[in-house]
Structure formats: C-alpha cells, structure tokens
Amino acid sequence: MDSLETLKEEIAKFVHDRDWDQFHSPANLAKSISIEANELLECFQWDEEHFDNEAVKEELADVINYCIQMSLVLNVDIKTIVEDKLRKTEKKYPVEKCKGKSTKYNKL
Description:
- By secondary structure, the chain is mostly helical.
- It folds into 2 domains: 1-76, Helix Hairpins (Orthogonal Bundle); 77-108, no CATH class.
- Helix content is 68%, strand content 0%.
- The longest helix has 22 residues, at 53-74.
- The protein is globular.
- It starts with a helix and ends in a 10-residue tail after the last helix.
C-alpha cells in the first residue's frame, strides 16, 4: 500500500474514532480548508523571509489534512484529480509561452 493510501486510512480512522464524520460535509470541509489556508498565509503576514518554519509546517499539514478528508467525503482519487488538473494547466501554460513568466494564461 502506498503512503498516500496509508495516510488516508489514518485520517479516516482519526475522524471516525471521534465521530466527527457528521460534521464533515463538503461545504464544512471547504470552509475548513479556506480557514487553514488563511492561517498558513498568516505565517507570512509581516515578514516573508523570516517566518516560523514549524508553524508553517503545522498549518500546511492542516490544509492537506482537510483536503484529504474532502477527497474521502467526495470519493475522489487525489492522484487522478491532480493529474487531470495538471494536464489541463499544461495546455493553458505551454512551456514555450510561459517559461519564466507569471503572466495569466489569457494574457500570454
């Protein structure tokens, strides 16, 4: 079993053992992802170069945790949806047009 599958099982057990499934609707998980992403952003609020790496790792873990929970609730395969999105994004941002640029795809 790969490490992502093991992690998904650990998270699912953690949530199940606490009877938190009842609170994990897609909408609630989306809210939690957004909240935790903002807490991650807060780590860089006043200084983008000198930040607490441990705090960043904890907030990043929270975001990833809720994203994994969302994938479980929606019954979607993380690897598949990320690869599908990557293929779409590759078409929007062909290397020959965007390499070294941060320009949005519709302005390339």
